[in-house]
Design brief:
Layout lengths: L3 E13 L3 H12 L4 E4 L7 H4 L29 E2 L8 E2 L9 E2 L23 H5 L9 H15 L1 E2 L13 E2 L6 H12 L5 E2 L33 H11 L3 E4 L2 E8 L5 E8 L4 E12 L3 H10 L24 E8 L19 E3 L4 H5 L9 E6 L7 H4 L12 H10 L3 E8 L8 E9 L5 E6 L4 H20 L3 E5 L45 E3 L14 H21 L3
Helix pairs in contact: 1-6, 1-12, 4-12
Length: 568
């Protein structure tokens, strides 16, 4: 047992995590006057000083190859990975799950696609539509005002489309489509598949003193000009300017402390530099460490009041873990090859995408799977990578030297890619629990994962692959690679790979069927709130970050009212 050091400081709120949920909690609570302490397991990060946004491969060691601190190489902004030194996790025998963790201020918000999609009316009541999964205890209308606030704060571009389950928002102007996107749109129109401007949290005009995107296309490196959204650029600085926020980095949360009255009294963490345990006290605790890390904290917070883990009287902490269904393919389109040089720069992501379009067919029973997916697209003249050219060798006559270069220059720009991102229905075979035999280097018991896709998700991936092929062929091209066919469950990625894990502490209408109430407040421990992806009841095909922030704003506003009223 490490040495315990008690801190005499007492806060209104201690927040575990600094990403989308933790950053938003700090932003709302400090502006409401609450004195907050934020605990972050990783190091400090200053995007203006530490971003590699405008560096070239020839300017850095190993031409930018990874140095072990990031899964995607030197240039990737997010420190962390599938394997974090000294922090193992386990997976049940015969099953597959991969857990990606960030260890830095702002967490995963430093590297993500910034796809900012609102969940729609159907997404909050999925069980009522098809009898699968569970309904949320809130409706779209309950969350819509918070979506508005988040979009106006962070800046999201898009267009008003009036789609039934892909709600419009408070949008900045969308950037113009690029050449390959126009050709994709033409093909989709012929196939009666909607393709609309993307909705990304990247500025196309200045707001709140942040300049618009300058189209360097390097969003994955973090943005030194704060032109795209991340917690360390948009949420944390305003919270710090209130004078109400203290941040401690290198603080590995161990457990939530509970007082004699059964309420949370603070958090115990390990100082990663000294390896000593530190206890901090607060009137309220907000967990925003990520869905799985929050479940781990709750399950490890055992006491005489909560022998099975904090807030776990329902037995649902860790249960119904969900990720996004993912399957990919790409192809070569001759019409896009050998074009005159032209500028197809843009934001660090797609300018157009395909929202789910087959609700009516599903209601009529014309599709063999429930729920749906959207399609993310790529192409153009960006720096080549293996995935973009997969399966293409030998298509262009080979050659050597000048001939080889000539052949590939003709092909360059002719490759397109498609990624399906679909809804997973929660199932009882997908969950995380504490491994009784393994602890991390700080002495904290680790998670063991169980995960299973249902036939709904596998058949959804099959539909993705068929749709990708149909679009590529309608463009006049040929599929050159895919993540898999019938022999590989249609290329569906292992659980966790899309890094959209949610669930594990779902909200609900009663303490028997959920861990949290509609405000993310624990039924069993009234001064404990959760503001990351753990409260999710379902995992719609919309990327979860925007909804995490909207829920976090709503929960934090509710908490702030209780702080002011001293109701607990």
């Amino acid at each position: 047992m490490p040495h315990t050091q008690s801190r005499t400081d007492h806060y209104d709120v201690v927040i575990v995590g600094s990403g989308a949920g933790g950053g938003m909690a700090a932003y709302v609570l400090t502006h409401a006057g609450a004195r907050c302490l934020m605990l972050e397991a990783g190091d400090w990060y200053d995007t203006a000083k530490q971003s590699h946004m405008l560096e070239w491969p020839y300017e850095v060691p190993r031409r930018g190859a990874g140095l072990g601190t990031s899964s995607w190489g030197y240039f990737d902004a997010c420190v962390g990975g599938w394997e974090v030194k000294g922090e193992p996790y386990t997976v049940a025998q015969g099953e597959k799950f991969r857990w990606w963790r960030a260890r830095m201020l702002g967490g995963r918000t430093n590297h993500w696609g910034r796809i900012s999609l609102r969940m729609g009316p159907y997404d909050f009541k999925p069980y009522s539509r098809d009898g699968k999964g569970f309904d949320w205890p809130i409706t779209y209308n309950d969350l819509a005002p918070y979506y508005d606030r988040v979009e106006e704060l962070i800046g999201v571009f898009g267009t008003l489309e009036g789609l039934e389950n892909t709600p419009d928002g408070k949008f900045l102007p969308a950037p113009a489509p690029r050449c390959y996107e126009l050709l994709m749109h033409e093909a989709c129109t012929r196939l009666h598949i909607p393709m609309i401007p993307s909705r990304l949290s990247i500025l196309t005009k200045s707001i709140h003193g942040r300049p618009p995107c300058h189209y360097c296309g390097q969003c994955g490196r973090s943005c030194a000009t704060s032109s795209n959204f991340s917690s360390p650029t948009v949420l944390i600085p305003p919270a710090m300017h209130t004078g109400k926020l203290e941040i401690r980095t290198g603080a590995m949360a161990r457990e939530v402390l509970v007082g004699a009255n059964g309420l949370a009294s603070g958090v115990s963490y390990i100082d990663k530099k000294t390896r000593k345990e530190v206890q901090v006290r607060a009137r309220y605790v907000v967990l925003a460490a990520s869905a799985c890390e929050t479940a781990r904290l709750l399950l490890n917070s055992r006491s005489r009041h909560f022998p099975q883990g904090l807030a776990n009287s329902s037995g649902l902490v860790g249960k119904y873990l969900m990720d996004t269904v993912g399957s990919d393919a790409g192809g070569f389109v001759p019409r896009l090859a050998n074009l005159p040089p032209h500028n197809d720069d843009g934001v660090g992501g797609m300018h157009m995408y395909v929202p789910w379009w087959n609700y009516k067919k599903q209601l009529k029973g014309e599709l063999p799977f429930a729920r749906g997916y959207h399609i993310e697209v790529g192409g153009g003249h960006g720096l080549p990578n293996t995935g973009s050219f997969g399966g293409a060798s030998g298509m262009f006559g080979g050659g050597y030297g000048v001939e080889l270069k000539r052949n590939w220059r003709k092909a360059y720009g002719g490759f397109v890619g498609f990624s399906g991102r679909g809804e997973m229905i929660p199932n009882e075979n997908s969950y995380c629990e504490i491994d009784p035999n393994v602890a991390d280097e700080y002495g904290i018991p680790v998670l063991r994962f169980h995960f299973k896709w249902s036939q709904d998700e596998i058949l959804q991936a099959k539909h993705m692959q068929e749709t990708f092929a149909e679009i590529i062929e309608t463009m006049g091209g040929k599929v050159t690679w895919s993540s898999g066919g019938a022999d590989k469950n249609w290329g569906i990625h292992d659980g966790g790979v899309i890094i959209h894990e949610v669930g594990t502490a779902r909200m609900g209408s009663t303490a028997k069927n959920s861990v949290l109430n509609q405000y993310g407040q624990a039924w069993d421990c009234k001064n404990l709130f959760v503001t990351d992806g753990a409260p999710f009841v379902s995992n719609a095909d919309k990327n979860p970050t925007l909804t995490i922030m909207a829920l976090a704003w709503r929960s934090s506003e509710h908490l702030a009212q209780q702080v002011k009223a001293r109701s607990i």
